[in-house]
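Tutorial sheet, problem 5. The three components below are modelled jointly, 641 residues in total.
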Amino acid sequence: MMAGRVLDLALHLLDRQIIDTDGNPVGNVDDVEIDESGYVEALLVGPQAVAGRLGGRLGEWLAFWTRVLQGGTEPTRIPVDLLTDLGSHITVARSRTELGAHRNEDRAREYLIGRIPGGRREGE
Amino acid sequence: MKRLLQVFLGVLTAIGGFVDIGDLVANALVGARFGMSLAWVVLVGVVGICLFAEMSGRVAAVTGRGTFDLVRERLGVRAGLLNLVASMLVTFLTLAAELGGVALAIELATSVNYLLFVPLVAFLVWFVIWRMPFEHMERAFGLLGLALVVFAVAFWKLGPDWGSMLHQASHPAVPDGEGHPTYWYYAIALFGAAMTPYEVFFFSSGAVEEGWTKKDLMIERINVYLGFPLGGLLSIAIAGCTWLVFMPAGVEVDHLDQVALPVALAAGKVGLAFVIVGFVAATFGAALETGLSTGYSIAQYLGWSWGKSVAPVRAARFHAVVLVAIVLGAMLILTTVDPIMVTEYSIVFSAVALPLTYFPILVVANDPGYMGEAVNSRLTNALGTAYLGLLTVVSLAAIPLMVATKAGQ
Amino acid sequence: MRGSDVIGLPVLGRGGRVLGKVLDVRLVQDGPLRGAYAALRVDALVVGRHTVAAHLGYDRARVNGPWLVNAVVNALTRGNGLLPWDEAEIADGVVRCERDALDPVPPI
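Model answer (structure tokens):
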């Protein structure tokens, strides 16, 4: 059997930055989904996933505030099929809008930042 | 030629941007009570900040990631969270102190109570972050901060006994009337003021904002190695001024107008005008940096989009945090707590948080997977390890000393 | 199951003796093709006592400096061991196996 590349989850995958196909940052690998046969199915991104990593009361607290301030209980899910690079950062084959990573900005955008004059312009 | 101008402006910006309310207060206070006997601490602090600013800038240029991104990656989620909370608290306290500092500086100019200016200052700080392009912001306030050079001028004009000054600086001794614990407490405070954590977050996040690459590293190093030491000399000049004016009279410095007095004595109204401009620029600039840094740290830890160079609606959570931090900071100052006291607490707590901040940078700067050939040299590592040891000792001693001396009484 | 559900769990060997905690999960990229890469398969658990040293990269990756940090972390991680995934049974928040001791962890 051909030997495959070896990597460690926490050392090489978790907390690494994810870059989308346009070169923009998507977020960090906050957790991974593993199926029953022991294969990594998806990367999980978002404070909801960080809450799972923290565990205990701390994690519940973060999950609560994320629900209140952002809405949603499920992190952004990136299937493993979309990975194109596993180096010091992870590259995926979609743009971040397609991945839905930006829906997390929704509440802050709608209720606060979007209402301030100049909020919807380009950055500088 | 254009390159040279860029380097020149970069160094000037670094000098003018070095001093903030913490350095002003710490050096002025120390000068009046301890003369030049603590000048060596500023030197040690400057070497330290040069070392770690260069490292974090290099890491940001090569990896494209800010400090807090890497903190979580290297320490793990839980230790990283502890780091985040501690750093955010200290940076927030510093932000409040800077807002108070701007208001106090305006009071100096107008003789109107500083509290009335706090809401206006908070709004202006937020507005500049909201609208002013990053590079212009840095440059403008850095160059205006150069007005503080008037302290060096005033020091010269006040005619110090250079021989005695050099002797005091090179033979540090606890002056009569001061205890050893107090001496070391102020040493830690001065050190914390020189090496504040937010400087490194801001520096590395700024490097990512401005899109630094390996090609910019040479300029970055010149800015750091020339600008910061000269900024450190400026801090010593501030201590020198209060030493010459207040120490013979046995007066302690605890108000901002006292800090300006030596300049007024030596350089008259013109000097005073420069001082006020310098105070406002230095504290306002630092308020911008600390405000942005609270956003940078939490956004990088949680993986949000961040930065001024990103369209605000795309980094809505980042901007929301910055806004909330500024509002809360202003509210803290509006409780009429003494801004000078807030400053003192912020620099001592900075000293406590230092090892947490610098350790992950040291580790990442050594990772060939990230840095390739730009990993630390042996010398950098030797210095880095020595400083990490020093920072740990300082961090452990800070609170006990604060309690033992009742915050330096 | 999530990665975070496994990392941090205590590991008990034969007779309930404590072998340590799950510090990391070793993955091998030799599964069927998924997109551009072969699938990542869980191969073993890295077990040890000191969690903080686990992410720094001194024991299993190529980070080597500064010397002092390297020495300290290597001392802390010397006792780490590898538990093959097919020998691990996860139930009630504990990982159980029938081992007295674990093989040392080969660096990557």
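Marking note: The interface with chain B takes residues 10, 15-17, 25, 27-28, 30, 45-47, 50, 53-54, 58, 70, 88, 102, 104-105, 108-109, 112-114, 116, 118-124 of chain A (CB under 8 Å). Full credit if you identified this.
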